[in-house]
Amino acid sequence: MTMPRSSFDGLVDTRCVAAAHSLPSEHRAPVAAVVRASTMSSPCSRRSLLRAGGVGLAALLLPEAAEASVFRALSIEALVGASERVSLVNALAAECHYQDIAGARRIVTDTRVRVERPIRGSTSESELMVRTLGGIVGNQGERVDGEAALVLGESALLFLLRLEDGEHGVVGMAQGHYPLRADGSGLRRLRLSPRLPPVVRANGVPASARLAGLAIDAAAQLIREARP
Predict the structure, then answer these.
(1) CA 17, 18, 20 angle in degrees (round to 5)?
(2) Mean pLDDT, residues 2-7
(3) Whether 168 contacts 162, CB under 8 Å
(4) Rounded CA gap, 111 and 146, in Å?
(5) CA spacing 20 to 30 A to 101: which of 135, 182, 188, 200?
(6) 213 with 221: CB under 8 angstroms?
(7) Do residues 92 and 114 make contact, with C-beta atoms less than 8 angstroms apart?
(8) Radius of gyration of the chain (CA)
(9) What is the rounded CA–CA span in Å between residue 146 and residue 43?
(10) Which helix (H) or strand (E) element contains residue 220?
(11) What is the three-class DSSP state of 99?
(12) How far apart are CA 198 and CA 208, in angstroms?
């Protein structure tokens, strides 16, 4: 996996492994490409406010990789079926730290988010911890191809599942992450995750084709009506 030199310095390919126990076998991808760099952009390079810890990403869902950087598309029904909750959240603060994953020491990012609007599933918590693969610790960085990239201060729709340590992972990585940004008229609409990789269509219409460009009310209706 090669990334542009304009984005990273001194790239070295590594591998990061995570199990996907809750999706049907046709949607599983236990291996995802990771790049390591001495400098890269990350919320952790701006703030380090949250606790470290946790027991790993054994339950993080990864869409099946058709090639090194091409993933099998997930429908709204598939995302909803694998999610414990779907929420509109705002990223408040983040911390990166090392975590043992599948026998290897990897960097993960824990982001504290405020729940602005529960869409589907549990509504009891006002704040959540969301863990994503990759980040920066000191002068070392790791980036996972296709992972969700939460931006501090930005609202986003997330499809979430609970990890073994009580934190949450984003179902389908970038396929389960939709930033909410204003269009030219000032109306906030869902956008594709900036790290969404190329996807190949599988069963059903990809969620990205149905959700991107919608206002949150229209997206919420589609998600609530979805039958996994």
Answers:
(1) 140
(2) 31
(3) yes
(4) 17
(5) 200
(6) no
(7) yes
(8) 16
(9) 17
(10) helix 216-225
(11) strand
(12) 11
pLDDT digits (tens, 9 = 90+) for 36-56: 444 456 677 544 333 323 333
**Amino acid residing at 102:** A
26 phi and psi, to 5 degrees? Answer: -70, -10
b (16+ CB within 10 A) / e for 58-89: bbbbbbbbeeeeebbbbbbbbbbbbbebbbbb
37 contacts 143 by C-beta, under 8 angstroms: yes
- Can you give the pLDDT at residue 192? 97
Structure tokens at 180: 């909410």
Residue 228 has, within 13 A of its CA and on its CB side, a CA count of 12
Contacts with 175 (C-beta within 8 Å, 6 or more apart), sequence order? 63, 71, 73, 74, 79, 146, 193, 196, 199, 206, 207, 208
Q: Looking up tokens 């304009």, which residue turns up?
A: 6
pLDDT (tens digit, 9 = 90+) per residue, 112-132? 999 999 999 988 899 999 999
